[in-house]
Design brief:
There is one protein chain. Helix content is 28%, strand content 24%. By secondary structure, the chain is an alpha+beta fold. The longest helix has 17 residues.
C-alpha cells in the first residue's frame, strides 16, 4: 500500500527521515514498523513568517518495498542507418530534439556553430580576461547553448506543453542529481551542467546520431517552398529532408537570413533592463527574518518581484542566489550581462535581472523602418550604448542602486562578482526613458515590498537585454513554418520557449512533428 501525505517540519528538528516516518505513522495511525519506506516527492520552504517551515510531500510505503527504478525509461536504439533529421543548434531544444529522434528511430544530424564544452571554456576566459568575444563561441553559442554555462534553473510555467517530469528524469539519466525531482525550485548549477551536456552528446553519438561543432549554417537552398539543402560557412552543402531550427534567442544572423530570403518572421514583445547585485546576506536577512548568518540547512535565499509601472510590467528575471554576473555578448562592440549560480550557491553575492516589458507594437515607433527586426535593432542599440559607457570593452556600466533611483552619478561602486569589471556611469540618464524611468519606479516599489532591498550596498549593472527573442518565427499547428513545409522553428529562437525545460519540451515536440511522413 502506498499513501501520499503532506508533512511540515520545523528547522529545530534535525533527523528529517526519522521525523518524516514518525509523522507519517502518527498521521496514518499505524506502527512505525509497518512503514517499509518513505519517498520524498516534493519539498519546499515556507519562509513567510519568522518560524520557517519545511514542507514535504511524501509517498509512504506500507509493508511494500520502494520501487528500484524510475517509471520513466528511455528507449534509445541504433539509428546509424536510419533516415536523417537535420537539427540546427545544440542548445536544450536541439539536444532534446536529437534525443527524441533517436527514441523514434530517426538519425539526428546536429549542426552547431560553436565549440564543445571543453574547448568553449577558453573562449569564455578570453571574454572575461581579455575582453575578446568569439562570435561563434561564447556564453550563448556552443555545445549546450546558453544553458550550459548558466545557472541551470529548471523552473517552468509551460506545464501544458509537454511532460516536465520526463525532462527532469532524462537530466537525471544523464547525470544530474535526483534532487531536481523533488525540489520546488530545482537547480543544477553552472559547475555541473557541462558534464551532463557532454553525457547527452556522447549518448547521441553512441546510438548513431551525429553532432558537428564549428559548423555554422549560413544559407538555405529553397525550391518549391522546401529547404533542399543547407549551406555551411566552409562552403559545404548538405541535402536535407527535415530541418529543425533551434538556434536560440541570440542567433541574429539567422533572423537576418530569414528576412533576406523573404521567409516570414514577426516582431515580438520581449523585456530588457539591468542586473542588480546585492550581498547575499542582505537577501538572506530579508527572506529568512534573521539578523546574522542564515541557518546552515537553508539555501541561499531567492526572491521574485513584480510591479506594474506606467502600464508595463517591471519584474525580476533569472534570479541567482549565491551567484555571479557574466558577460553574455555575442559580438565585439556590445556589452550584455547575465547571471548564474554554482550548484552550492555559495558565492557571497545575489543577482537578478530586473527588466521592463517592451511592447513591440507600441514602444518602438522610432524603429519601424526595420520592420520585423525592430526589436532586434533596439536591443543592439542598447548593447552598443552599454559598450561605450563601459569604456569600449567588456567592462560594464554600473551605478549604486540608490544613486540610480535618485538620479546621481556614483562616486564609487560596491564590490562585484562581474569579472571584467565595472565602470561608474549615469545609467539613470543613459537608458531610454521607457526602460530607465520604469526601472527607477520599480526599484522604489521593490524596496517597500522587501525592507532592506533598496540599499546603497547594491549595484545595478547594464545591460540585461537577452531575456528572450525579439523575433518570432511563425509555425502552424503541425509546427511547420507556414511558408517552408519542412522547416520546424523551435525553442527560444523561434519564440516558443523561455528556459531550459520549456526549450527541451519544445525540442521533443518538434522532433515528433518533423518525422511525420518522413
Amino acid at each position: 500500500m502506498v499513501k501520499e501525505l503532506q508533512l511540515r517540519v520545523t528547522l529545530k528538528e534535525e533527523e528529517f527521515k526519522d521525523i518524516l516516518i514518525s509523522k507519517a505513522a502518527k498521521w496514518l495511525d499505524i506502527p512505525k514498523e509497518d512503514i517499509t519506506g518513505i519517498k520524498v516527492l516534493r519539498k519546499s520552504i515556507d519562509a513567510r513568517k519568522p518560524k520557517i517551515i519545511l514542507n514535504y510531500k511524501v509517498a509512504v510505503y506500507i509493508r511494500e518495498a520502494l520501487p528500484k527504478q524510475s517509471e520513466y525509461q528511455f528507449d534509445y536504439k541504433d539509428v546509424s542507418k536510419a533516415k536523417p533529421v537535420h537539427i540546427i543548434g545544440f542548445g536544450p531544444a536541439g539536444m532534446y530534439a536529437a534525443l527524441r529522434c533517436i527514441e523514434l528511430g530517426y538519425k539526428p544530424i546536429v549542426l552547431e556553430r560553436g565549440k564543445n564544452v571543453q574547448q568553449r571554456r577558453r573562449d569564455l576566459k578570453a571574454i572575461n580576461q581579455d575582453h575578446i568575444v568569439n562570435d561563434d563561441s561564447n556564453y550563448c553559442f556552443g555545445e549546450g547553448g546558453a544553458g550550459t554555462y548558466s545557472d541551470g534553473k529548471l523552473y517552468t510555467r509551460s506545464l501544458k506543453r509537454g511532460d516536465v517530469r520526463r525532462i527532469f528524469e532524462n537530466l537525471v539519466y544523464h547525470g544530474a542529481t535526483d534532487q531536481i525531482l523533488v525540489d520546488a525550485h530545482p537547480h543544477i548549477g553552472t559547475n555541473k551542467l557541462p558534464k551532463i551536456i557532454q553525457n547527452i552528446r556522447e549518448n547521441i553519438i553512441k546510438y548513431g546520431g551525429e553532432v558537428h561543432f564549428e559548423t555554422r549554417v549560413v544559407d538555405f537552398n529553397i525550391k518549391n517552398n522546401t529547404i533542399k539543402s543547407v549551406i555551411l560557412q566552409n562552403g559545404n552543402e548538405l541535402d536535407t529532408e527535415r530541418v529543425i531550427l533551434a538556434t536560440g534567442h541570440s542567433a541574429r544572423d539567422i533572423f537576418y537570413l530569414l528576412k533576406d530570403k523573404d521567409i516570414a518572421i514577426k516582431s515580438k514583445s520581449f523585456a530588457m533592463g539591468v542586473r542588480v547585485e546585492h550581498p547575499q546576506h542582505i537577501i538572506d536577512s530579508i527572506q529568512y527574518h534573521c539578523s546574522g548568518d542564515r541557518h546552515e540547512i537553508l539555501p541561499a535565499a531567492a526572491y521574485s518581484l513584480v510591479q506594474q509601472v506606467n502600464e508595463r510590467g517591471v519584474y525580476s528575471f533569472c534570479m541567482c542566489p549565491g551567484g555571479f554576473i557574466v558577460p553574455a555578448a555575442t559580438a565585439n562592440g556590445e556589452v550584455v550581462v547575465n547571471g548564474m549560480s554554482p550548484s552550492r550557491r555559495n558565492n557571497k553575492f545575489a543577482n537578478s535581472g530586473i527588466v521592463v516589458e517592451i511592447n513591440a507594437e507600441k514602444d518602438l515607433k522610432k524603429y519601424e523602418q526595420f520592420g520585423e527586426l525592430k526589436g532586434l535593432e533596439f536591443q543592439k542599440d542598447l548593447e552598443r550604448l552599454a559598450f561605450t559607457a563601459g569604456g569600449r570593452s567588456q567592462v560594464a556600466p554600473a551605478q549604486r542602486l540608490t544613486d540610480f533611483v535618485e538620479g546621481r552619478l556614483s562616486n564609487n561602486l560596491n564590490e562585484t562578482s562581474y569579472q571584467p569589471g565595472l565602470k561608474s556611469a549615469p545609467m539613470h540618464s543613459l537608458l531610454p526613458k521607457l526602460i530607465g524611468g520604469r526601472l527607477r519606479k520599480g526599484f522604489a516599489a521593490f524596496g517597500k515590498k522587501m525592507k532592506g532591498y533598496y540599499t546603497e550596498e547594491a549595484n545595478i549593472v547594464g545591460v540585461e537585454s537577452r531575456t528572450s527573442s525579439p523575433v518570432n518565427i511563425p509555425r502552424t499547428e503541425t509546427l511547420e513554418h507556414p511558408q517552408i513545409s519542412n522547416l520546424f522553428p523551435c525553442g527560444e529562437g523561434g519564440g516558443y520557449a523561455g528556459g531550459i525545460v520549456s526549450a527541451a519540451m519544445d525540442g521533443e515536440r518538434c522532433a515528433e512533428a518533423a518525422i511525420v511522413g518522413l
